[in-house]
């Protein structure tokens, strides 16, 4: 990392600062920008609520927030929501694991082996250029209309960002640090475990988060194509029966699930990335 | 005070089995470090058509402190990488303790220009990078030797530039190498810190007895630290100067030192 050189200069100052509290206890986050950012959507929701309540708008196509909340609450209380949440999460989870593992393995192969890079990478890049939704009819033909085609579509969506991210991360590992490992005669396994893996971990986490994000995107497409269960089914159902409140409720559930899954990855990776938080927090 | 070593006479090359105390052999046992003899027989190195080293014949006796000076691009760093086994020579042989070597050497360690600490490991784990049984105690002992015993639990990024190089020095010494290569390790430090590092290096060299090869473009640094200064110019040894002055008498401005310095500067 070329940043090391410049970091060295700043660090003498940091070393003095670090004599006080431990450097990895970061300063408390400032909530004010977040509150400011919430201002616009909250104001819009309140305004819409007021307009509908006062009878100036019907709210037939865009229901007021209160009605969406009631719909969501009903779905949750009657237990109708949970099988849908389970089905969708299961598809995304399975597709994410399959696509993620394949992406990590191919990314590693591509970064270690120039042959693989020359032989396979052009094909993968070509496939990547295909909008993944274009696969849907083929997958339906090949894999049927049930779970397999849906999971396959999600896995394809997850695969590419993970593959690219892992390949880029390994190729970008600081050669100087690898040299330190070689000089100290670390075995291949130790070199991978103690130098390569920690070095690519930040990029790997970003790649997995991107992949997971795409997984949620693709599950909607998959379920939209035909499903009897899943949040995507609630969307279709809402459209066909003219229930915009149910559509928006489903959208909210998607947002919530996506956020929770992303936070889970971050939480899992945080202990291993603490050095990086400290490094960047000190800047 | 550790008694001053004789720096005027170059001792006869030590016998090939120069790790004494046969029972305590092997990297990793603390306190067994003994310098190893380093010899070059017609060593050449070319990158494509460009000859960087053009026939080096040289013997560095066990335990000697040698400085290599020269202009940048003169082949200093290439020489260092050959000794460490990071690169192979185009021609000729490098012998360590009498035997021809190829590939990475277990008894050679390198101190780089930048400390190259792993940012994701705390100081103690960085020092003990080679692991092995009992590494924590050894790493802690080496940290104490370089004066950083209380920083074992810190992340590298909180250390100053000089402290980072101290940690790198402790890491290089933790396996008791027979040869320590130093590739301009103090170039980026301020003058005061550099003076501290010079004293520390001299101290650990005396205590551990390794053969030291210091690459530097700073002639004053070379004559202050080394037993012998080699001038590397255009890929050959242009001059080989013995610093025949005890270290205690090497205060800046000593006439003999200034004379040697002038001679080296002329050769560079």
- Helical/strand content category of chain B: alpha/beta
Strand content of chain A: under 5%
- The CATH C-level name of chain A is Mainly Alpha
Query: Do you know the CATH architecture of the largest domain in chain B?
Result: 3-Layer(aba) Sandwich
Q: State the shape of chain A.
A: globular
> What's the helix count of chain B?
7
Give the N-to-C terminal Cα separation of chain B: 35 Å
Main β-sheet description of chain B: 6 strands, mixed
Q: What is the CATH topology classification name of the largest domain in chain B? A: Rossmann fold
Q: Strand tally of chain A, please?
A: 0
Overall tally of structural domains of chain A: 1
The parts of chain B where pLDDT drops under 50 for at least 5 residues are 1-33
Question: What order do the helices and strands come in, and which of them pair?
Answer:
The complex is a heterodimer of chains A (283) and B (268).
Chain A lengths: L2 H15 L14 H22 L11 H13 L3 H32 L1 H6 L1 H8 L7 H8 L3 H25 L3 H9 L4 H37 L6 H10 L3 H26 L4 H8 L2
Chain B lengths: L37 E10 L2 E11 L4 E5 L6 H9 L6 E6 L2 E2 L7 E4 L11 H5 L7 H11 L15 H13 L5 E5 L7 H18 L2 E6 L2 H7 L2 E6 L2 E7 L12 H13 L1
Parallel strand pairs in B: 3-8, 3-9, 6-7, 7-8
Antiparallel strand pairs in B: 1-2, 1-4, 4-5, 9-10
Question: Explain this structure to me?
Answer:
Chain A starts with a helix and ends with a helix. The relative contact order of chain A is 0.11. Chain A has helices at residues 3-17, 32-53, 65-77, 81-112, 114-119, 121-128, 136-143, 147-171, 175-183, 188-224, 231-240, 244-269, 274-281. The radius of gyration of chain A is 24 Å and the shape is globular. Chain A has 13 helices and no strands. By secondary structure, chain B is an alpha/beta fold. Chain B has two domains: 33-107 and 178-267, P-loop containing nucleotide triphosphate hydrolases (Rossmann fold); 117-176, no CATH class. Helix content of chain B is 28%, strand content 23%. Chain B has helices at 76-84, 123-127, 135-145, 161-173, 191-208, 219-225, 255-267; strands spanning 38-47, 50-60, 65-69, 91-96, 99-100, 108-111, 179-183, 211-216, 228-233, 236-242. In chain B, strand 1 and strand 2 (50-60) form a beta hairpin. The interface between A and B is medium-sized, with 32 and 28 residues.
């Amino acid at each position: 990392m070329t940043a090391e050189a410049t970091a060295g200069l700043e660090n003498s100052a940091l070393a003095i600062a670090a004599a006080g509290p431990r450097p990895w206890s970061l300063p408390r986050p400032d909530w004010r920008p977040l509150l400011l950012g919430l201002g616009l959507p909250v104001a819009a929701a309140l305004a819409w609520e007021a307009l509908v309540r006062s009878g100036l708008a019907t709210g037939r196509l865009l229901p007021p927030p209160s009605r969406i909340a009631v719909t969501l609450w009903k779905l949750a209380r009657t237990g109708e929501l949970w099988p849908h949440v389970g089905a969708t999460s299961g598809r995304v989870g399975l597709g994410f694991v399959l696509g993620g593992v394949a992406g990590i393995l191919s990314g590693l192969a591509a970064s270690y082996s120039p042959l693989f890079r020359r032989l396979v990478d052009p094909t993968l890049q070509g496939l990547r250029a295909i909008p993944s939704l274009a696969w849907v009819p083929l997958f339906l033909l090949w894999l049927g209309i049930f779970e397999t085609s849906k999971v396959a579509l999600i896995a394809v969506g997850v695969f590419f960002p993970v593959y690219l991210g892992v390949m880029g991360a390994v190729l970008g590992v600081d050669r100087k640090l690898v040299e330190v490992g070689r000089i100290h005669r670390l075995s291949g396994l130790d070199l991978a475990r103690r130098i390569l893996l920690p070095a690519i971990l930040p990029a790997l986490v970003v790649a997995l988060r991107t992949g997971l994000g795409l997984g949620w995107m693709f599950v909607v497409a998959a379920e939209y194509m035909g499903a009897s269960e899943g949040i995507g089914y609630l969307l279709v159902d809402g459209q066909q029966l003219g229930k915009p409140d149910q559509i928006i409720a489903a959208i909210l559930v998607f947002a919530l699930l996506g956020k929770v899954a992303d936070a889970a990855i971050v939480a899992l990776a945080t202990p291993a990335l603490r050095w990086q938080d400290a490094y960047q927090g000190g800047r | 005070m550790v008694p001053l070593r004789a720096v005027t006479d170059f001792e006869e090359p030590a016998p090939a089995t120069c790790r004494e105390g046969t029972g305590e052999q092997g990297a990793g046992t603390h306190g067994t470090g003994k310098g190893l003899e380093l010899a070059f027989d017609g060593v050449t190195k070319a990158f494509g058509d460009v000859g960087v080293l053009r026939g080096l014949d040289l013997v560095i006796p066990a335990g000697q402190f040698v400085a290599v000076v020269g202009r940048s691009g003169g082949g200093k760093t290439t020489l260092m990488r050959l000794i460490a086994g990071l690169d192979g020579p185009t021609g000729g042989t490098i012998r360590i303790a009498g035997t021809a070597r190829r590939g990475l050497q277990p008894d050679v360690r390198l101190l780089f220009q930048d400390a190259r600490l792993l940012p994701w490991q705390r100081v103690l784990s960085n020092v003990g990078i080679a692991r092995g049984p009992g590494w924590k105690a050894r790493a802690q002992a080496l940290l104490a030797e370089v004066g950083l015993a209380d920083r074992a639990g810190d992340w590298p990024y909180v250390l100053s530039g000089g402290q980072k190089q101290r940690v790198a020095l402790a890491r290089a010494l933790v396996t008791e190498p027979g040869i320590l290569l130093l590739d301009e390790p103090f170039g980026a430090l301020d003058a005061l810190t550099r003076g501290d590092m010079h004293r520390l290096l001299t101290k650990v060299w005396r205590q551990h007895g390794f053969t030291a090869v210091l690459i530097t473009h700073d002639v004053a640094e070379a004559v202050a630290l080394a037993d012998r200064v080699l001038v590397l110019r255009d890929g050959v040894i242009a001059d080989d100067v013995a610093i025949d002055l005890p270290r205690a008498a090497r205060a800046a401005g000593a006439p003999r030192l200034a004379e040697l310095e002038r001679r080296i500067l002329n050769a560079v």
